[in-house]
Amino acid sequence: MKRTLIAAGVVAATILVLHEAAFAHGVSARDAAFVRGLDGPAVAAFTYLGAKHMVTGYDHLLFLVGVIFFLHRVRDVLLYVSLFTIGHSLTLLFGVLADIRANAYVIDAVIGLSVVYKGFENLGGFPRLFGFRPDTRIAVLVFGLFHGFGLATRLQDLALPSRGLVANLVSFNVGVEVGQALALGGVLAALMYWRSRAGFSRHAFVANTALMAGGFLLVGFQLAGYFVMP
At what angle do helices 136-157 and 165-195 cross, to 10 degrees? Predict the structure, then answer.
C-alpha cells in the first residue's frame, strides 16, 4: 500500500510539472506564432511539430503505456498501436477539415478517463467488480478517436490557413506517428527489461494503480478548466 501511494504521488507530481511545461494537447505560444505565420505547404515543419506533440504528449503516452503494459508478442503490440493510430488519425484529419467542434476540456477529460480505463482494465477490475471483460480492441480504437479529436480542437484554435491545409495536416499526423514510434520504442525496451526482473508482477499492480491516479488527475485538470475558464 505504501509503495502504491508513493508511485501515485510520483505520477501526480510529474503530471503537475509537465502540465505547465508540455501543454498536453495544447500548442506552445512559440509554435502557435510559427504556425500562424505559415502560408502554404510546410511539410518538414508540420512533421516536426507532430513528432514534438507526441513526444511531449504525456496523456497519449500514459494511455499507450497502459495498452502495451502486458503485451508480449510483437503482433499484439502492432495490432493495438495500429487501432489507436487509425482512431487518432481519423479524428485529427476530419475534425479539422470538416470543422467539427467540441469543448476541448470535455474531450481532454475523456482522454484522461482513457488512462483510468486502461489502468483499471490491467488490474482486472472489470471482471472482479462487474463480471465482464470489455473488448480491448474496440476500446483502444474508440479512445484513439478521442485522442485525435483532442488535438483537432487545438489546431482549430490556430485558424490554420486554407492554402496547403491538407498537406500540412497529413504531415503533422505523420509526425505524430513518428514521435509515437520513437516513444514506444523506448517504453517497450524499458518494459522488456523490467519483465526480466524479479517482482514484476507485484510491481505491476503498483504501476497500474499509479496510472489510474494519473488519469484521474488529468480528468480533474480538465473539469476544473471547464468550470473555471471562460
Answer: 140
**Of 124, 142, 141, which is closest to residue 133 (Cα–Cα)?**
124
Rounded Cα distance between 208 and 52, Å, is: 26
Q: How far is CA 220 from CA 15, 178, 190, 204, 228, in A?
A: 12, 30, 29, 24, 12
How much is the mean pLDDT over the chain? 86
Number of domains the chain is built from: 1
Residue 152 and residue 91 in contact, taking contact as beta carbons nearer than 8 Å: yes
Which pLDDT score, from 0 to 100, does residue 19 have? 45
User: What are the residues whose beta carbons fall under 8 Å from the beta carbon of 220, sequence distance 6 or more?
Assistant: 112
What domain range is 187 assigned to?
A: 2-228
Q: How far, in Å, CA of 154 to CA of 157, rounded?
A: 5
